[in-house]
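I wish you would study the pair of lines that follows with an eye to the fold:

===
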Amino acid sequence: MTPRRICVVTGSRAEYGLLRFVLQAIRDSGDLRLQLAVTGTHLSPEYGLTYRAIEEDGFGIDAKVEMLLSSDSAVGITKSLGLGLVGFADAWERLHPDLIVLLGDRYEILAAATAALIARIPIAHIHGGEATEGAIDESVRHAVSKMSQLHFVAADEYRRRVIQLGEQPERVFLVGGLGVDSIRRLKLLGKAELEHALQFSFGKRTLLVTFHPATLDDEAAAGQVGELLSALASLRDTHFIFTLPNAETESHGVTRLIGQFVSERPKIAKAFSCLGQLRYLSCMQHCDGVVGNSSSGLTEAPSLHKGTVNIGDRQRGRLRASSVIDCEPNTAAIVAALRRLASPEFAAQLAHTVNPYGEGGASEKIVATLRSVSLDGLLKKRFYDVPGMKVP
């Protein structure tokens, strides 16, 4: 029997980290054949050519889809999306996969999904049904769900939402969050080992900071990150590890301001364009809190019992644990949230944090379904009307 060809797409460092154990399980399966398509920032010198790390992990790359323009304007991102559509059309014609696996909500994934839809290749979508009301990712995520035939979701609320979009319940699988898998399965670095790997010393307190543009906000991302940096500058006896944003609208301004902050404080702050998942999660484990608006502060930090200061609207609507402190994107609100993060009362309750994204095992559940699910008639979708649902 010919192995089923499963093509997984990755376009960013964070996404690859989440998919790594799925990739391993597909590769090691006797009845599946892994294909890997790499795109986006993985192929950009500006973001560290991270496709090399994928190869160092032992994965062969079957397609490299160049699509990223060196522009963070809306026009530049839109043109990158167009290039991606052309590139994935060629990739799907050449690879002819039986099923494509996509994760999340970035515009690279939208290009891959659109090309697959027209090429009549079924899609399995991971982490659908989630809400991030402050970013265009929200619309992209739901659009990819509607183009997909199989769905692997992280929580029961997200499963209900995908079904509400009209997807058949028997094709929506509750598996939990992939980020939790990585925490459970990776051997994280010890503190001294991590400091050596980063060439950076932790302070009395150390914060892990990641800030992405909230792409639906009227206020410019540079203004919001300026408020954040003003709040951080007010802290004493604190070191900062920054991870820089991915390629998206207004990301260059955020990167520039963080670079200026770090250059003025070289002994207590350092910025990284790509930490890789092992170093990133190790930083999270040893830091005294996560600050910014990254999804990892909501989906992964709770499993390490770390507090998160979540700034602004980018993650609004996403499930969150009791370890998450939400605040507005202004200096006064961020300072107040940082004080709460450092308070003994807040620290005392972190040990009891329950992660709403589960306890691990998502990778195995996904691959088990990819092996067993029938692909016959999968492309022709029937809209599912939720029984008893009334329109307001």
